[in-house]
Amino acid sequence: MRGKKDIYIGGKPPAHSKLIRTPYIIVLIVIAVAAAGFFAYRYARLARPLKTVVVEEVSDLKVYYPSRPAKLSLKSTPVKTMLTDREKADAIISALKTGKVLPDTLVLTDFAADMEGTLILNFTSDLALLKLEPLTEIQTVYAIVNSFLANFTKAKNVQLLAAGQAIFTIGGTVYTYKPMEFNSQMLED
Question: Is 143 inside any structural domain?
């Protein structure tokens, strides 16, 4: 019976059976190593601490800068959403200083809003001492006024003070003694 060589009774299997078992053993070893690697990788991932992702909401401040010819251009400056009014005011002043609209020596000492919707900006006395060309003075004053009114939507106008006192004019061109409204005529088209 030649077809029944697969049954062995009490003897050694023929030599060719080693050839058949060897690939199965190799495949089982590869599967075992792959499974061990997979579980080691999963354990290593689970053992690492999770990274905490902090999502900060960001909004844009609208800041107006002088542009040519005798206009103001709008640029957005990203800031954290949950700023207090004072922090927002400081961010506007900082952006205007960065854009070289205001000198670095000028400081906003007080910021308040009254019941009629007037934002009161009290600067150091440096505001009254600025020496500006007429066009530069107009652009500077309205860059401040428009920037504040664009970001404080409930406000109607802005009162500029220097050392707690209203000033008639900064450089002789723009009347600043009374609260000033948003100037849309200065905006770029």
Answer: yes
H-assigned helices in the chain: 16-47, 85-98, 126-129, 134-151
Confirm if 167 and 177 have CB atoms less than 8 A apart: yes
Distance in angstroms (rounded) separating the CA atoms of residues 149 and 152: 5
Total domains present in the chain:
1
Collapsed DSSP state (helix, strand, coil) of residue 74: strand
Q: Determine the residue type at 157.
A: N
**Is the bond into 49 cis (omega within 30 degrees of 0)?**
no
The type of residue at 184 is S
Residue with tokens 């010819």: 69
Residue-number span of the structural domain to which 131 is assigned? 58-186
Q: pTM of the entire structure?
A: 0.70
Average pLDDT over residues 43-67: 79
Provide DSSP, 51-66: PP-PPPPEEEEEEEEE
What's the mean pLDDT in 117-121?
A: 96
Output the pLDDT for position 130: 87
